[in-house]
């Protein structure tokens, strides 16, 4: 007979954001690994709405405190509350009287910058967001970037741009292009979110700026939706958001059983980096190879051939092959196939897509051909690769 008491818990998050979805996933993972019986309240469209929350009759709340309006609305709440949000340099910015689970903004930026250093870059910039009360986390990432630049005695190049909407889209893109063109090349750019990184990738494409030869770009969030919407697969820092969700749920569980955890603060570091083509900078000396690589990264998955690359660059096929052998030690065909394989690996890692759809989307003539390429280059089939990657993720989740 199950005598576990059920608790009514409200989750106040905007699940249209990748970060919030991952937090909720972590909460679910915690509940799945425990005997805690929670009846969860979320808006049907998974949006955060505060109207009437002060009258909600329940046992506890886990909420996104990055928005000051949430902290204000819950300041007089009588049920246990666990706050989730970004870390702050100024201790006064943390909410008082509630346990707080934070993503470590400094470590997010440092991990991204260290990666750009590892691929051989010496100049760096940050693409941020306009200042706003609900985007204080972006300003904290700016502060981290400035601190790291100061340590290396470098100028901190930061561009905020403007908020994007249908009416301001053209101005936003032109502003991004002007900024990109003003930067000394090559340069590594960290975007404060994957969504901002996607915009910058598009601006580079429109302006004819080669990624990653001239601009190497890395985002933050590891958002699979954003990755599907970019021509050049986006590298991204993986926030420890699922771990944050598990931690927040654990803290609330303790509070529901009498634990006193006011002003507890836990900083969760990033979980790693998902490295794709956008940040895989290789110092190239020959402009024809740089131009060819830029074209390949944009159109490899559309089934382009070596002749089309040579035509785009404006040289003969034999000359381009010679340049590739000298610079990269491979043929143009090999470079195209390498990029298609990288895109296919990212597609296969998405368990919701069929292997056949991935093969078609990545420009392989058939699933069988993609199967042969995986076996030759990775030593396993696409399905085995998927099971290995997803199986590892599930095992890590189970052990956490």
From TrEMBL:
UniProt keyword list: DNA-binding, Transcription, Transcription regulation
Pfam families documented for this protein: HTH_18 (PF12833), PBP1_XylR (PF22177), Peripla_BP_3 (PF13377)
GO molecular function, one term: DNA-binding transcription factor activity
SMART domains attached to this UniProt entry: HTH_ARAC (SM00342)
Species the sequence originates in: Rugamonas rivuli
PANTHER family: LACI-RELATED TRANSCRIPTIONAL REPRESSOR (PTHR30146), XYLOSE OPERON REGULATORY PROTEIN (PTHR30146:SF24)
Domain named HTH araC/xylS-type: residues: 290-388
PROSITE patterns documented for this protein: HTH_ARAC_FAMILY_2
The protein, known as: Helix-turn-helix domain-containing protein
